[in-house]
Write a structure and sequence with these properties.
CATH class of the largest domain: Alpha Beta
Number of strands: 8
Length: 252
């Protein structure tokens, strides 16, 4: 190797130090990151976490912008029908730049978006950790094997993998399974969503007994899928469940 080649810094090191130009993961505009950011200075504020009032049990923001109820007060739906998880952490609302990134990750196969999005969620959890105990395992809402073969990947699992790399947590893909294939939830009303996913998950009781779990999903609309998955974890003996959601639809 020549002296010039020996002294040339590796490209990976230059990128890590923020000395090489990269393209923004959202708008694809070239920029020079200062601290290894994946999003440019214009897009990063568009992907800031939601800081407003929300139900502490389902993460739903108030229907009216003038509703200033304290965030510690559950919404009427959760008071009437409490969800099967102890706490929830929602990164942002399913709109704008975050919605665009999640749609591209889910339907366009842009898996490179999973790492920066999972990193944003990890930062959110470090700044505002869940009140439940540290997790024994992190799980992603699974897909049915037929669906997984067709798409080739599970976007929730990709986000969970990125989160676990950042926080050095154990990711398990073998403890929660889809037992039957369901039709897409999009386009269904709330009642049909509940019926669609009822009894569609199973969990491993021998490994989940008394476990503290984090369950991650990319988007939460009515919460019917999360309720069905968490109910399976409860039946398997999970001691506590924290639901992690990358984006929450702003209204039911």
């Amino acid at each position: 190797m020549s002296a010039r080649g020996f002294l040339r810094p590796p490209l990976r090191l230059l990128r890590r130090l923020g000395l090489l130009e990269r393209r923004c993961a959202h708008c694809l505009t070239p920029f020079t990151p200062l601290h290894g950011e994946a999003f440019c200075p214009h897009c990063l504020p568009l992907l800031a976490p939601y800081q407003g009032t929300a139900c502490p049990r389902c993460g739903l923001p108030p229907a009216s912008p003038g509703d200033t109820d304290a965030p510690s007060v559950p919404c009427g739906h959760c008071l009437a029908d409490p969800p099967p998880w102890e706490s929830i952490r929602v990164y942002g609302l399913y709109q704008g730049a975050l919605r665009d990134c999640l749609l591209r990750l889910k339907f366009s196969g842009e898996l490179a978006l999973a790492a920066p999005l999972g990193g944003l969620l990890a930062q959110r959890l470090q700044a505002c950790p869940p009140p439940c105990p540290a997790p024994d395992c992190v799980l992603a809402v699974p897909q049915h094997p037929d669906h997984l073969r067709e798409r080739g990947y599970n976007q929730a699992h990709e986000l969970a993998a990125a989160l676990c790399r950042e926080l050095r947590l154990p990711l398990r893909h073998d403890l929660l399974h889809r037992t039957r294939r369901v039709q897409p939830q999009a386009g269904l009303d709330a009642a049909r969503r509940v019926a669609n996913v009822r009894n569609s998950f199973s969990a491993s009781p021998h490994q989940l007994a008394d476990a503290h779990c984090w369950l991650l999903d990319d988007v939460m609309t009515t919460g019917s899928t999360a309720r069905a998955a968490c109910s399976a974890l409860r039946e398997a003996g999970a001691a506590s469940i924290t639901l992690l959601v990358m984006a929450r639809t702003p209204s039911r």
